[in-house]
Amino acid sequence: MQDMMKMFGDAYGKGPAVVSRAPGRLEILGNHTDYNEGFVLSAAVDRATEFALSPVDGKDCEIRDFRDGSVRNFNLDSVDQPKPGDWANYVKGMICEIRKRGHDVGGFNAAILSTIPLSAGMSSSAALEISAGFAFAKAFGIELPKEEWARVGQGVENNYMGLKSGLLDQFSSIFGQKDSLIFCDFRSVSVERTVRMPEGYSFVVANSMVKHNLVDSEYNARRRSCERAAGILAGRHPEVKTLRDVSTDMIEDAKGSLDNDDYLKALHVVGENERVLKAIEMIEKGDVQGFGNLLYESQESSRVNFANSCREIDCLIELSRSVPGCIGARLSGGGFGGITIHLVKDSDTEQYRARLDTAYKLQTGLETSTLACSIGSGAAVVYAC
Ligand code: GLA
pTM of the entire structure? Predict the structure, then answer.
């Protein structure tokens, strides 16, 4: 935060009134389950976006991104039109979503600093939304429950950016707990419980370096497949509202009446729900290898059923099986590129990263950037004068 205070003071002539911080997230297990009202095991990472702000008179706003020196200026009367590809959309979209809830934001000077890699699958966009939201809340006296802030951020993605995503990213950024995984239920929209990370293990994050842009991707098509499958299953089982209410056996029974593509997508989601519950049991009884195997099963289902892996991710996962030290690995997040997570013993982490980097370069010609990720706590206002 010291860097932010200094840079903000240098840029605007005096320090900020508020600084908030929101972390990126890792999806540990439970892929594409959130918008099907299902289960996810996730974590906030120790990398975050800081959003500093000082209110100003009038309706003109300025945001500086201290990472690359870019600056955006806009007027509060013209925030309702997103500009394609502009990072300021996430902040402007928050203002629109806040207004829908009967609150408003005044003029401000703001700045952003972040240690979350961009467009890689650690939810840098959700971290920007939530850090901005928490700063607005403090500076302009907006009171909303924390779950609602997650919906505000999701509203930006759904309504402003056109991505029909679920609540996972914003929710994990807000509710993450240091050194623990959070078990999220997206029917009740709550953290059911926290699960301690297995002692002596952590996640290595390896970026496939395939830029995933979910807005342009097949994400929305996947969601439609899931909803179609749930609709057909509801016709056979009146208790079914979403894929959350469906078991693997029910899908197999209905296979003949489902479009084959929809059948495979639904199989993935239902399998993921089941794997999340199994993983919690395994972690809690100390079966780390069992947990690792579930990560591999999830990846295989992404590759074969949900078709949201890609060649480079498949390569990283294959390498994880041959480079010594990995207990289990899978893609994390929407897919179609982005990051993979690798469960590794703490003592093996450095060697594993170095070997994975080298092997990936040899196989693909791409430089991966592996990170050893610690699990951090959720979003908060970290300074208010
Ligand atoms: C992206 C979306 C989330 C979730 C994951 C897949 O991160 O933003 O809502 O659907 O993909 O699990």
Answer: 0.96
